[in-house]
Amino acid sequence: MLPFVLALWQWQRGMDKLRLEQMLLARQAPAVVTALPAAGEPDMARYQLAGASAGGMPILLDNSLLDGMPGQRILQVLRLDNGSLVLADLGWRAAAQPVPVQRLPQRLSGQWLPWHARWTLPGARQGIDGVVDDVDRAALQQRYPGRWHPGVFILQPPLSGLQPWPLQPSLSAQRHFAYALQWLLLAVCALLLWRRWVRSAE
């Protein structure tokens, strides 16, 4: 049964990634919308927002590999012109690269995406200051009370001196479908061998 379950799991993951890839492709139009919706989940659309840092030091999200290189995503809480708050991804830096001085432009272009919690091991650093392994969203909302938008606003282009964090998932939908097919073939082979063994034992 296990290979069948894994095949189904990979197929479902592939379908999720396919929907994400199709939505990202459909949302590549130039940014013309200047305010995030007052309610609702991230729609992956492009926006051009006006706002500024809500204060505090940037959050350096560690263990963020880009093309196999260790580095950090640099996150900052933004307070938008209407007073609402959103977590922004300013870009990625290599581990040995200094943190650039933050000078946010008056207009921030980017895409509004869901925030995916990370799988972390015991002892991982969860917080909202400095280098962390995961962002403590509850602590963020306590420090910066107000109306929060879910997800993360990924700057495009990134802040000067940083590299863009890829929007596409690291594993494509086609890769998951290939894994699903492998597990399915393995399951079928195991089933045939089992039936052959049962018949020979009768």
Describe this structure in words.
With 202 residues, this protein is an alpha/beta fold. Helices cover 30% and strands 26% of the residues. A 5-stranded mixed beta barrel has the order 1-3-4-9-5. A two-stranded parallel ribbon has the order 6-8. A hairpin with a 4-residue loop joins β3 (71-80) and β4. The longest helix has 29 residues, at 173-201.
For this entry, give a set of tags.
202 residues; alpha/beta; five-stranded mixed barrel; two-stranded parallel sheet; 30% helix
**Helix segment tally:** 3
Total strands: 9
Order of secondary-structure elements: HEEEEEEEEHEH
Strand order of the largest sheet: 1-3-4-9-5
Give the N-to-C terminal Cα separation: 23 Å
Q: Shape, please?
A: elongated
Assess the beta-strand content as a share of residues.
25-35%
- Average pLDDT figure: 85
Supply the helix-strand structural class. Answer: alpha/beta
Radius of gyration (CA) equals 21 Å
Instruction: Note poorly predicted spans.
Output: none
Instruction: Please describe the biggest sheet, giving its number of strands, its sense, and whether it closes into a barrel.
Output: 5 strands, mixed, barrel
Helix content: 25-40%
Mind sketching the topology for me?
Blueprint: H1 2-26, E1 46-53, E2 59-61, E3 71-80, E4 85-94, E5 107-113, E6 126-127, E7 130-132, E8 134-135, H2 137-143, E9 148-155, H3 173-201
Parallel strand pairs: 2-7, 4-9, 6-8
Antiparallel strand pairs: 1-3, 1-5, 2-3, 3-4, 5-9
Helix pairs in contact: 1-3
